[in-house]
Batch of 2 targets.
Target 1
Amino acid sequence: MPRHDQGAPWVRTRLRTAPVSAVAFGLLVLVTAFLAAVLPRAVEAYETDGLREALTTAAPESTVLELKAPQPGLEKPEEARTDAVLPEALAAVEDSARALLPEPLRADPAESAYGVRTGKSLEALDASLPRPDGLPPRFTLLAQSGAAGHATVREGRLPTAGTPVTVDTRVVEGAVTAETARTLRLRAGSELTLAGFPDGPLTVRITGILEPRHPQRSYWSAEPVLRTPALASVGNRPPLSYWEAGVLLAPGAAPALLGGQGEPEKYWRFAPAAGGLTAGDVPALLAGVASLENGPGLVRMRGAAGPTAQLSTGLEQVVDSYSATRDAITPVVAVAAFGIAAVAVVVLVMSAGVAAARRDVELALLRARGGSLGGIAGRLLAETAVPAVPAAACGLLLAVLVVDEARPLPTVLGAGAVALLACAGLPVRAAVAHRRPRAHQERDDLAHTRPGGRRTVAELTLLVLAVGSVAALRRRGTAGTGDLLVSAAPVLVGLVAALVLVRLYPLPLRWAAGPAGRLRGVVGFLSLARAGRSPAAIATLPLLALLTALTTAAFGGSVLAGVADARDRAALLETGADVRISTTDGTPLPAGLARAVREVAGVRQVTTVGIEYAAERASDEARSLPVVGVEPDSYAGLARQTGLGGFTADRLGARGGVLDAVASPEVAERLGRAPHTIVLPGGAVTVRITAVRPRTPAVPEGEFLLVDAAELKSSGGPSILLAAGAGLDAKALRAAVRGAGSDLSVTLRGEERAALSDSPLQAGAERIYVWAVVAGAGYALLALVLGLLRSAPERAALLARLRTLGLTTRQGRQLLGLEALPLALLAAGGGMAVGWATVVLLAPGIDLDRLALPDASGVTAPGGAALRADVWSLALPAAGAVLLAGAVAVAQAWWAGRRTPITHLRAGDMR
């Protein structure tokens, strides 16, 4: 057949006929595919960031992998023992062991080290060294590699091993950090005489004072005493303290340690490289660590380091803690993902419904002329695939560009699912609507349509699923991983509520239409009649999208509000007020500090307190009861303002030599309400408890006893300053504190609050919730617009007919606005009710502790991370839905009014 006899191609013709619709449909698919593709990538990205931060911020002694082997056996020749601990031999083992680390575990060469150390610290014999309780300090000697690359020499030089060092060497060179030198009064040229050698002590000549370049990293912190000396104690009563410190020897001096009783051991420390790890590597990482500690990996390590080598690490505890936090957050985030996915599916189905309704007459004509369902569906599939598939591919590419470092499979599956739904929506909708040829359009409005048996069964099934998910969530919470039904509980509740409201929607319209028909005007009656005769699809799908979106927004807003409240509460319990200033050693505050703080901008209230410890009975040796001396008026005002155990100032004072006191519940239970004598450092005091409060600003957590500081004659003075205010200038405040005195600690509630949201896991989950709420709201509004656009031609034709009968432009706008109002009010009211009910139903099973607070163990202070309905999250989205529905209706009336009635009443129009 000649080419011109074949006719124009279907797809090209249809796309040219409605280019605006095709472009709008492509944009919808692009945005939806982008969201579906970027969501798993964003989740994996913040989980990966959380894993890396957990490894980098954890104490190096917890994350480093330490491979240890005892000193060479005494049965070996001395030369062989010496050669086994020389740097060359240790370096060869280090190379072999690093290559044996299982995937995905990799070592960071810059922070890894190896050497020989004394497993038991050696006692120093020098009388010039500080002895806190008369006990001599003890030193751990480390012949560790890489000192030149990790320290700056502040004084002297690095230690060397110029002459060959043997087991019998008794003089070696060493270096200490600047902090060790300052604490133990050492300098370049000092000598340490260490016991523990059979034929005389070991002399360590200090040749250099070192400043660590990265003191918090593994090289210096895997053995903390190497960087900073620490006080240790022996188990006497009372305990006696002594200093523990480290000395860095030259790597070649390791043989000298073999001749003593310090239990020398070879070690290889591998700092894990967190930069290449992802959240998906956690199972393999834990399996690899377990293998290295007690499995095939340890066998291979022993092949390199010796048959008695052992590998130890706390890395699995760090990863387990991260995994527990992630597993607690994931189900809560999944709620937001299910919500936005449900609304997006409804919008895509609605877009297919709008296209099918616009072409209903065309498709009915094709069926009447013998077109097969398969042929029509295939052409429609090709027509929708042309804009949908490239748009989905662009959304996928955009998601990859926006968020990198994530697995491709979830991204491809998300975008592919959107493309499949977008392509199949119109063909399936058309095939169902035109499965039988028909001569005319049947009524499908709410007043005429009756639910069938299949719909009833489907709705009951959905109800059973919703009840089961809510019951499971309330009973066992979100602790179970991978349970999608539990995470879908809010969405299922919203869907069930939408289906119930759709069944009830015609009833109030019928009840209101009767009284409206008896009014003089026609606008009210016509609007209610039109709303009741709206096609079922126009009412059902937008209502479904709006309720689901409003439920998700209410639930998400309540989650975010609960997280914010918990963080505010935790920050307040950390500081007790907006500002907390204290001396580092418990001495009294400088005299002019309170006045200087009052002059800082934003400070409204200042009070000072002093804390002493008392014995509850004269026979008690230990003083463990915190007695807080306060100024009654200012402190009572601060307590009321912060909400931490507020009371009136008259609760404190003195009557007849007995001090009135405010106590915590535990103290009140032990002391009783009768006068009771306690023993302070300055003498005995009789107190009477006049009020009981669970907490107080000076001691936010724990027991306390508040008294009037003016009545404590032997008090040493206040040591803590508390201040409250708004808009505090942190720089000016710190400058004022520095000007008032030194050795003062300043803690700001705002800074503590900001630190609680720094964790990538918490911050990432919070961002997902915010964007899910925003996207859900956008999809819900789009669903409302699509519902109104579907009936726009019919509305315009009706308005034109009524204008020919005398309806004014103002009445036309009122008519369309009131017609859209019942559905919007139903969605808004139902959304608020369902959102509130969802939060109330699911609150007992939602644990926000780990989402709100980093390193939370699942228990917070009373009034902490609890899920509560947030009024603004309920009201604002509902009000927005009503306002948008009215705005769209008014805009449609304005647009229709610009065109003449003849345009809408052309002969042959089936409207």
Target 2
Amino acid sequence: MSEKDHFPIVGIGASAGGIEALEGFFRGLPREAGAALVIVTHLSPDRESLLHEIVARYTDLPVRIASDGEKVGPDRVYIMPSNHILTMQKRHLVLRKNTSRREPKPIDIFFSSLAVDAGEFSVGVILSGGDSDGTLGVKAIKEYGGLTLAQVADGFGPQHPDMPDAAIFSGLIDFAIPVEKMGQKLADYARSLDILDGIAVRAEVIATDRQLDEELSEIYAIIRNQIGHDFSGYKTKTFVRRVQRRMQVTQIESIQGYVELLRQQPQEVGALFRDLLINVTNFFRDREAFHSLAETVLPKLFGGRGADETVRIWVPGCATGEEVFSIAILVREHIDRLSAVPRVQIFVTDIDERALAVARAARYPEALLGDVSPERRSRFFIADGGSFVVAKDVRELCIFSPHSVIRDPPFSRIDLVSCRNLLIYFGGDVQTQVIPIFHYALKPDGHLFLGSAENVSQFGDLFAPIDKQHRIFRRRSDIVPNVRLPIMLNGLRPGHIAELAPRRSPLGGMGLRQVVDHQVIERFSPPHVVVNQDGDVVYYSTRTGKYLEAPGGSPTRQLLANARKGLKLDLRTLFREAVESGRSSSREGIAVENEDGRVQVLDLTIEPLTDGGSSEPLFLVLFTDQGPVLSREEALLRASEHGDGSALHAERELRETRDRLQSMIEEYETALEELKSSNEELVSVNEEMQSTNEELEASKEELQSVNEELHTVNGELNTKIDQLDRSNNDLLNLFESTDVATVFFDKNLVIRSFTPAVSHVFNILPSDRGRPITDLSSRLNLPGFSDDIAKVFADHGPIERRVENTEGTEHYLARLGPYRDGDHKTEGVVVTFVNVTSLTRSEARQRVLIAELQHRTRNLLTVVQSIGRQTLGKGGTYADFTTRLAALSRVQGLIGDTTYDTINLGDLVRLELQAVGAAEGKATITGATVPLSLDLVQTMGLALHELATNAVKHGARHKGGTVP
């Protein structure tokens, strides 16, 4: 990039309510912000936009309509024209006509191309709007290192917050601020690009830059201590770029200052961590991993499955859906090769319903399809304007649903769980909860597909690796984990997952003490375990093998089951005393025999754990050796040396045995009573179970019947859906092909639907569905329109009237009729506007022609009367009268045949000469062309008739005859 191109390009996306937001934006923008501004809005394709004139009122910067091939420059404003798709290539604007039948996503399209073209110099601003357009765009900008901003409520809106809210809830917005504060932020960001650009250059010479190396090591340590993830193996240049971006956002000019900020503000550590985790989430990202999934896992999922079976796949944390549809495409490619195709269900879940809406729409800018091969693009994507829509046969495999993998109960009987790049957002405690949930959700030998930065190495007892490099694992079915399924986690809030990560303080005085304490405990403290009140071990220290051994059979954590021979009786007694009394219990001189026959004498102590950090009581069990391990002979010799105390020791053991026996007898009697009571309850329960079993049998038959009915209803529903799809397509094609402007309102005059031709009547956009018609301006004069609508609701009958546009150049027939539901109740109004401009003009012309005909008829009758008076009134014959009428008829015929406003005098003379028998050759007509107006033709014709008849009377037709 040349030095003169070293400025940010700001894409500004707005829709409904965007004018007020743009006004506030430019009010806060400095005169020389040092950035190019490109405004992309939702515009009606059928009318010319005047947005450039409106924006020019709010700013002194030059404002122009974007043109194809124009290179952008700083401190200039470019406006996307209507009915076009705008993209960016090599810092030049690229325009093409919008040919999409559906409503395009112009903001997503431009932002995505801007991110690819400008990289870290790209900025995305989301203002007021009524849908989620722009969410995918800011995602692309964020992934390529740019800056993202979104509008929050202030004096300039947003009037329609859906569009900025969708971007904010995606978690990809750097600044969610009022619109009038955005201008200064952009100016500061533009200046910071020059100040901080040298840091990236320094990353190239990291090997020789000792100071930067130390600063990066400090940042690695801060992230590792607070978040628990080590980024020291991250690519240095990429890591520095992410740090640089956070410095630009926080307006810190030195890396030392940023390190200090990380020490003081833990939330900035979380923000840097999230930026480091951002990857370009295009389709088939990590192509080799998806290829391995298709080659190693999918054949096993579909192997041996019949058409009546179901393959179930779960994709938690789907975000905007690229990963989901990548897997769905692989599945579609695989089942196209099968002869018997099982049913496929891909459950797509996320806690963000706005992100689910983007995924459900399945519409993506071209920039996000960079890793899709041309064959897959032509097979599984439909080009629609500047976007691509996933094909229906892929979309119909997916079932979208809001769901929290932590809070909500999991799916079950799943064949494949694909959870890529979600676990890295969880702390260790949450991962410990989530991984066993995936194990529970999967079928035996089901598969788990993780991201490249994730692993289940600490859960090797639950999952076995299939392709360790590409993070594909198989569920082990020989282990049944103790899974706590989620019911509700009140403390978790969407968007704050990073807070679950364990926080660690940097290594200081306290940290050093902990390290020393840990080493002393490991090397010099007696072996010990921690158990809960049920006797299950929750923690082992080192060197406990002399006292505990795993029994045969299934693995268990029960302390008494793992105790060695000679230790169980005393261990059981002391443990019961500690649990019942809540105080410490101990016993000395307990002999434990090892496997080789040698004996270890030890002291056993069990006491409550006072500060275990757990909600359930825990107990510490200490094994303290009395001297070294003895052989059997040494143990007997030692016992004989202490013979003086043998009797006392025997008496003590006898007493304790008697006490234990008495206690056991009492427990036995109590248990016997409870057993009798339980037996009676079991008899009663058995009778109830028999009754319940009979009811269940009846219910089973009913369920089978209901299931058959559901299958029938499901088939009918699928048929209805197909019919509805066809009807919807027919209606869509009818709307787009008709020239009749039709708009549908509900009872509150809110727009329900309309045909494209309505844009000739109202200033309307596809996104205006759901808005009151009163919010829109009309190109027609519609006096009494509200009264007519009220009359339709009152009389339930149609109303027709003619209206015209404000210039009076076009005329429409407006017809208002009731919109009736299936019960013939009036639920709204249907208004149609038929262009009758041609008909109105034809009617006006017809009225003029009739008036002209009437006028000419009166004139003709007057001439006939005059001829009669001149002929018959002066003694002329009837033949002379008819001859003159014939001449008049010839003149009228000549007038009727012409298409001009004049008659040639020569044609009139020739017509009269032919009438008196003057054939060609006997009469010569010479001279210039003399045009006669139509009002003179009749008089001239009669005059020529008289001259011709007089010439005939005087012998002009005889040979050599002339008329003087």
